[in-house]
Specification:
By secondary structure, the chain is of the alpha/beta class. The protein has seven helices and six strands. It is about 40% helix and about 20% strand. Strands 2-1-3-6-5-4 form a six-stranded mixed sheet, with helices on both faces.
Length: about 170
Amino acid sequence: MKDTSNHITVAILTLSDKGAKGEREDDSGPIIQGMLNDIKAEIKYYDILSDEKRLIKEKLIEYSSRVDLILTTGGTGLSPRDVTPEATLEILDRQVPGIAEAMRSEGLTITKRAMLSRAVAGIRGRSLIINLPGSPKAVKESLSIIIDVIPHAIEKIKGDSSECAR
């Protein structure tokens, strides 16, 4: 059962073949953890998996019954092993394309390589799932673009029926 208090429960999933084998330290996950302090987020799960679509899907499904927000890092690029968006799309109930569009759009003001991101975002059950890039710098830039809207999105996903107009 998910926590419905005023804080957000979170799972962080790093996708990296080398990270899963212990051959590379995950620098992006800790950056995500630090940035989530500003939105009353409680990290419930933090895992590192290899870039295997089946494993990613299983973990996203597991997390989606336990937390409000799932942030993935890695596997959103163009290499043959980058399958995070495909795994995510296969388990989503609904997409929230504006989140990934905002990250790419703002990212383009920093580097033209932002257009190569295939990140997606969406809802499964009552969980918001967002794919972030794998590099620490890109994670920080991307999350800073969307972090302010995450609490509102979670409230709406949880069923808040108050008006959104200001």
